[in-house]
Amino acid sequence: MELCVNIDHVATLRNARGTPYPEPVVAAAMVELAGAHGITVHPREDGRHIRPDDVRRIRPMTAGRFTLEMANTPANRALALEVKPDLVTLVPEKRQELTTEGGLDAARQVGAVRELVSALADAGIPTSLFIDPQRAQIEAAVAAGAAFVEFHTGRYADATTESARAAELEAIRRAVGEARAAGLRTNAGHGLHLHTTRPIARIEGIEQLHIGHGIIARAVFVGLERAVRKS
Ligand code: PXP
Predict the structure, then answer these.
(1) pTM score, two decimals?
(2) What is the pLDDT of residue 125?
């Protein structure tokens, strides 16, 4: 299984002060040097973290897998066709949300998704749909011609009881089996932390995990003592 690290929140810290640092391009290089298989970025319409220009600067610096998470907008489609990521992951986007709160309702927009999937495929770019672990969404991903689905692990990661977490884990495990039986390749991610990642990583058939906030948040604590001592 591959680990693709989402570095959006390095840019969140930079944008908080309008400084040129911390520089996401440097973060991408460090993440790859540390052994990650890929870099993932998600430019949002409000530019709160990674921005289109960051995507253009990071893309040529990556040696591993480069994943562009994006909402289906004309500007994002043009950006994808320009930078040619190894994978586009299509996500829903509501301007006010703190993060991507639910999966894409692919079942309600099969036509629009299929059109984008086909335009990206013509440029040699495979598409993944970020969906909840539900059969209707898997069927829609097949109908839209997507190569991959990424199962949203947020409900699993945020579950507050052991039984709720076990039920969410089982739903993801079942959905991975169904998606693969339908010919889709499967990824997973969102909201994962050190302690919630392992059970997901044990699910047979998941190819890539996309993890951001938990790793960047941990990096602050892992590095804080050294940063203070050096100051
Ligand atoms: N996968 C997708 C499709 C996402 O949109 C995000 C957040 O940008 C992630 C994974 C990573 O989520 P987190 O930052 O909570 O690890």
Answers:
(1) 0.96
(2) 98
